[in-house]
Amino acid sequence: MTKTLAGNAVIGQSGGPTAVINQSLVGCIEGLRGCDAVGKILGAHHAVRGIVNNDFIDLTDIPQDRLDRIANTPSSGLGSSRDKPDQAYCKKIFDRFAENDVRYFFYIGGNDSSDTARIVNEMARQDGYELRAFHIPKTIDNDLECNDHTPGFPSAARFVAQAFMGDQLDNAALPGIKLDIIMGRHAGFLTAASMMARTRDGDGPHLIYVPEVAFDLDKFTADVDRVYAKHGRCIVAISEGIHDSSGESITAKLAENVETDAHGNVQLSGTGALGDYLVALVKERLGEKLRVRADTFGYLQRSFAGCLSEVDQREARASARVAADLAVQGVENGSIAIQRVSDSPYEVKYERVELSDVAGKTRTLPLEYIVDDCDIDPSFRTYLAPLIGELPTIEQF
Known about the structure:
Blueprint lengths: L6 E7 L7 H13 L4 E7 L2 H6 L3 E3 L5 H8 L15 H13 L2 E8 L1 H17 L4 E6 L15 H21 L3 E6 L6 H4 L14 E3 L7 H15 L2 E6 L10 H5 L18 H14 L5 E5 L13 H20 L3 E11 L2 E8 L16 E2 L3 E2 L3 H9 L9
Parallel strand pairs: 1-2, 1-4, 4-5, 5-10, 6-8, 6-9, 7-8
Antiparallel strand pairs: 2-3, 10-11, 12-13
């Protein structure tokens, strides 16, 4: 613990937007406003790109009523970026901090964002420049180590659950085979959330495929055939990140010209190729006359305004407030982790963890939740239910 620093603060929002990332932004602002040593509070316009371009939004004196409206608005209010800063990029960030007397840096994002905070913090140490660098968690994939769950995931999971409730009803009214592709490159939490749509025996999704286990095309078509023979219909939840036994993404295998982002990740969410391919495969193997359709939820899952989780809103704001409080108290750096204390009553605590414990690491869906490589165990409900809140009530004949 060291002294409280006098200087300016920068807040950035990185990676894919979420429904509650602005709650984190506002929580951080609120925490910093309570410290006289903090001068200007600057928002990095489009994340690290805004920092290196000296493109900042002054957040210091924005009225509270406007902040509250921003907090309740989905997506990244400051704008975001997919830039992956290396050492040279982070040196530019650090230079801009020195030019602008920035002593507090808060980066809201996933594991790559925590790595950026880590690198900048290490540069400050090497130069003897006093800086407080904090990572504030955000990702709909729910894949950050040390966290029970991450801000953004509960609202996205609520969207997935409600989307499947509607799709399940649609499929029951007009039977056929329906394939829905869900976000999740390496972690299947979001796809697993589809199981919350089941309200009675026989409800879909009947099959759920996540990237934690290898996806076998022969088993997939056999599973669909089995379910269709039993129910006369079949609805399937499939993670965009499914891969074969060698670890190669099924989507990457389909693409002639594979598009990648700055992090080297194959583009998965901006294409319907996986759904189209699996539809064609099912028809080829099980019958051309079958009614088979696919939807790719894609970016709709991230910032949908109608499915906000109250828990998600509250925790996103609180975790950022904790980061700001620790920084002004003199803690040098860290990542804030949400850790569950109990299921009933639902309770969490916010813990500071080392940046290196989160940076560049990926948490995946525990294998205990995966059944026969094509379903999710009912015990997952205990984990997810308090996060997404009460779902709409439906009635059927």
